[in-house]
Amino acid sequence: MPDVWFAGGVVADGTGRDPVRADVCVADGVVSAIGQAPAGATTVDLDGMLLTPGLIDAHVHLGISSPIRAHFGFQLSVAELAADIFATAGYALDAGFTTVRDTGGVDGGVVDVIAKGKVRGPRVLSCGPVQCQTGGHGYYGADWEPTELWERHHIPGLCALSLMSGNADELRRNVRESFRRGATFLKLCVTGGVVGGHDRLTDTQFAVEEIAVAVEEAAARGTYVTVHAHNNAGIRNAVRAGVRCVEHGTDIDEETARLMREHDVAVVPTFAVVEALMEDTESMDLDPRTRDKLTGVRQQMATALQISRAAGLRVGLGSDLIGPHQQRRGEELRIRAELESPMQALVSATRDNADILGIGDSVGTIELGMRADLVAWQQNPLDDAKAFADPDMAALVVKAGQILKETR
Ligand SMILES: [Zn+2]
């Protein structure tokens, strides 16, 4: 493939620096020069559009892409579940996301077919199934069904929502199994959650010693643990056990933020899912009671974001979208832009997310030697962040040097 210059655009490189007029050369999937395209070069003309790094969503659930109650009630065929998962992967790419971190629900096969290019989608880093305690968040079977039968609902190679562990030894076995089947990091639920009826947001789950077992197994493979956590007690347990990242972080207070800073633990707030669940409980096919659980969560999460920033935490960005309507993944950036600034939202979704995912040396900024993941925006989202949320505004999407969407 010849060198290609993406020319005539304005570059916001993902570091937070002010955007500058520059042409970007891509060779072998990597940014090989930034400056002025030479005369006669092969160019893709960007017509003054803003060029950003490909966006990263640090909290996705490709494996939960179907109407939720029908899915969790096991009423959908494998074909339908697969069709919905593959559609969601394509939507992510079309919305400008070139990397996603799947925080639970897909089996390794999905990651594989996307990596092979058989299914359109972003680069996927996956934890496989969510690791949960018996009776904890992440169990969606029937009330009458013994926990032992839950795993039989997995569809090997396609989806595996969660694995239940009754004690530290079972957890050790389950995380080893998850790694064998393609996980590259781990996610544990250490507090209750919103979706599902067996737990409350105030519950803590897994003991510190149990979480530490997962941390030990992850460290043995050179990777890390992130945790689903809403309340402070659960977050502090997880930080003491050695996890690297907290998802949601709804109630983070000053003391918890200080502890997280001391241990260099990052946080990934997730606003888009909260808004989607509030507005759209029925079309997502969720129990209307889910909405009651969400009262106050949005405001609390906004406060936690402020506290996290003030404490100097690394703050990522994740949509946590579930269900069939995942076209507008960039809503997370739009909301964060309103709470902070469009530039802060962009940096969280690019450089900072790449750092949290452990791929910051090759992805997340437009700099020499970085993988050429690029998005050109039809309207400048730094002027009006609504453009981040509108897939039609992502006019050109490039993953590792390959143009995978071009709509101009
Ligand atoms: Zn989630």
Task: Describe this protein with a few key phrases.
four-stranded parallel β-sheet, 22% strand, eight-stranded mixed β-sheet, 408 residues, alpha/beta, binds zinc ion, 32% helix
Would you give an account of this structure?
By secondary structure, the chain is α/β, with parallel strands linked by helices. 32% of the residues lie in helices and 22% in strands. The protein has 12 helices and 19 strands. The protein has helices at 68-72, 78-94, 108-115, 168-180, 208-220, 232-241, 254-262, 271-280, 289-293, 297-310, 331-339, 342-357, and strands at residues 4-11, 20-27, 30-35, 43-45, 50-53, 55-60, 97-102, 105-106, 123-126, 130-133, 159-160, 162-165, 186-189, 225-229, 245-248, 266-268, 374-377, 394-399, 402-406. Strands 1, 2, 3, 4, 5, 17, 18 and 19 form an 8-stranded mixed β-sheet that branches. The chain has a 4-stranded parallel β-sheet with strand order 13-14-15-16. Helix 7 (254-262) links the parallel strand 15 (245-248) and strand 16. Helix 4 runs parallel beside helix 5, helix 5 (208-220) packs across helix 6 and helix 11 (331-339) crosses helix 12 (342-357). The longest helix has 17 residues, at 78-94. It is globular and about 70 Å long.
